[in-house]
Amino acid sequence: MTFENLLRFFHDRLRPLLANGLRRAQVLRDWYREAGCTGTEARAIKLLKEWLSAKQLAQFNAHRYFDVIGCHTGKNYRICYGTATNIYELDYAGRPRSVLCFVPNRPLAAGDVMLAQKIALETDEWSAVAVANRFAPSWH
Amino acid sequence: MATQIVMDQNGDTRHTFDASDTKALLRAEERFKELTGLGFTAAIRTTSGEPAVTHRFDPAAEETLFFPRLVGG
After folding, report:
1. B6 → chain A, closest CA residue
2. B69 to A104: CB separation less than 8 angstroms, yes or no
């Protein structure tokens, strides 16, 4: 088999198999992650996913965080999986500038907290930032 | 059928109602006023899928999400 044939074989046969395998692995990984959640948490994540944009959903599935754009300033924020101190204000290079913390005043699952934070930043950024506590990022 | 989704300790509670039923619509409007009076924010999704906060009951909204007041953490 020539090198050219080998390349063609890879392109025609192996590549689709690999892509399919990767997709299945992704589904299994998501299933495994969410199987470890409580029913409450799983329901909250399902609701969150329904409200995320396609881009945010892809980001969340891959990294457990998603980025939102503040409706008033156009600033980028990264909302990470969690229920507190889980929002990073990003600079133009995508590095964390500060950590913001604002949460619903009732105990909620992480998915619900993240959804409330997303809607707040995308629809009423100034009010959300006004109540938030701000910290220096401890990593990067 | 329209749905009001209220975030709570159990994830959420869903109230489904027939928007063509006057009584059901009235109950939904009362629930909207009660929740927003308690400090909940009501959000709907626009036709493009983006969230929008609403301060008035929208009888045509297919899905309204309520989340509790936000405070510094």
Report:
1. A112
2. yes
Chain A contact present for B7, CB below 8 A: yes
Enter the ipTM.
0.95
pLDDT for A140 equals 45
Secondary structure letter of residue A11 according to DSSP: I
Four-way CATH pick for B2-67: 2.60.40, 3.90.1150, 3.10.20, 1.10.1740:
3.10.20
Residue B30 token pair: 């009362």
**Joined tokens for residue A53:** 């944009």
Contact A84 B45 (CB under 8 A): no
Q: pTM of the predicted model, to two decimals?
A: 0.83
Q: Dihedral of the CA atoms A52, A54, A60, A63 (nearest 10)?
A: -160
Measured between CA atoms, the residue of chain A closest to residue B50 is: A53
